[in-house]
Amino acid sequence: MSADIIDGKAFAAKVREKVATHVARLKEENGITPGLAVVLVGEDPASQVYVRSKGKLTTEVGMNSIEHKLGADTSEADLLSLIAQLNADPAVHGILVQLPLPDHLNEDLVINSIEPAKDVDGFHISNVGLLGTGQKSMVPCTPLGCLMLLRDYHGSLSGMNAVVIGRSNIVGKPMANLLLGDSCTVTIAHSRTQDLQDVVRGADIVVAAVGRPEMVTGDWIKPGATVIDVGINRIPNGEKTKLVGDVDFASASQVAGAITPVPGGVGPMTIACLLANTVTACCRANGIKEPKGLTA
Ligand SMILES: Nc1nc(=O)c2c([nH]1)NC[C@@H]1CN(c3ccc(C(=O)N[C@@H](CCC(=O)O)C(=O)O)cc3)C=[N+]21
User: Which residue intervals define the domain Tetrahydrofolate dehydrogenase/cyclohydrolase NAD(P)-binding in the entry (predicted)?
Assistant: First the structure.
C-alpha cells in the first residue's frame, strides 16, 4: 500500500470538538442551546445506521436532540403539519427529514416545506439555488465533509481535475458545485458515461458516490490521485456482512496518493457536518457571527 489514509473519523472528531466549543459559547454568552430535530418516517435500514450515532453525537456536543418517529403509513398532511410546527418552533434550529421516505410521500414536496434557514441537509430548492450561484446557503453534509477533507489534505484545490462519479441531488451535484467553487475543473460522470474508466483516469481528485460496492478499482486511478469514497454498502462476508465503499480499497490504495477508508472516512464527516450546520443555522437565526471553518 502506498496511499496516505485520510482519517475521516479523526477529522470528524475535531470538527465536533469545534462545534462543542461554539455550542458552549452560545449557551454561556447568548443563553441559547442549538436544537436539531430529526424526523423519521417508517424504518428504512440504511437510515437506521445513520440514526444510531446521530442522536448520541448531538447531545455529546451539547445540543438538544429532538426525535420524531412516525409510522410508515403516516399521511403527507400529518408530516407537513409536523414540519410546519418545527418550522415555527424557536428552539429548533435544524430540521432533518430522514430519506428515503416511504413511496406514498412526495419527497420533493416534503423537503421544500422545511424552512430553508433550518434545512441543515441543504436539500431545499432555495439552498440548492444559493449554492449553485455561489451564495451563502446551507450546504449538504456529505459533500461539505468531503470538501473539508480535501481542503485539509491539499490546501488549495485550484486548477485540479476533479471527477465526481454519481449525479444525485444529495451528493454528486452539490459536490460538483463545491469543487467548482474551489476552482477545480469538474466532470460529473455517471452510469451512462462513456469510457468511464478513462474519464476517471484523468482525475487528480476522484469522488465516488454511485452506490455500487467496490466498483472503482486501482487500474481506474491516476497514480498519486486523491480518492474520496462516499459509498456505504453492506455486502455479505461469510456468515456475516461488512461495509465497503464504492471503491475497491485494496487495489486503489496501491495506486492513489491518498484515500478515505470505509468505514471511518466520509460517513463520520457527514454527521459532524450535520452538527456544524446546526450551529451555523442557530447563529444565523439569532444574528450571531457564525464560526469560521464550519461551512464552505
Ligand atoms: N435526510 C437525510 N440526510 C442524510 O444525511 C442521510 C439520510 N437522510 N438518510 C440515510 C443516509 C445515510 N447516512 C449516513 C451517514 C453517516 C454514516 C456513518 O457514519 N457511517 C460509518 C459506519 C457506521 C457503521 O459501522 O455501520 C462510517 O462510514 O464510518 C452512515 C450513513 C446519512 N444519510
Answer: 140-284
Residues 148, 108 share a domain: no
Structural domain that includes position 188: 141-266
H helical segments located in 61-105: 76-88
Q: Does residue 216 lie within any of the structural domains?
A: yes
CATH number, residue 58: 3.40.50.10860
Q: Ligand 1 center to residue 67 CA distance, Å?
A: 16
pLDDT digits (tens, 9 = 90+) for 101-159: 999 999 999 999 999 999 999 999 999 999 999 999 999 999 999 999 999 999 999 99
CB-based pocket (< 6 A), ligand 1: 46-47, 49-50, 96-99, 121, 141, 232, 243, 262-264, 267-268, 270-271
How many domains are there within the chain? Answer: 2
User: Which of 7, 138, 142, 232 has the most ligand 1 atoms within 8 A of CB, as the residue to mutate?
Assistant: 232
**pLDDT level of residue 1 (50, 70, 90 thresholds):** low
The number of residues in the chain equals 296
Burial class (CB in 10 A: 0-12, 13-18, 19+), 178: buried
84 & 148 share domain: no
Tell me the whole-structure pTM to 2 decimals.
0.98
What is the ipTM metric for this complex? 0.98
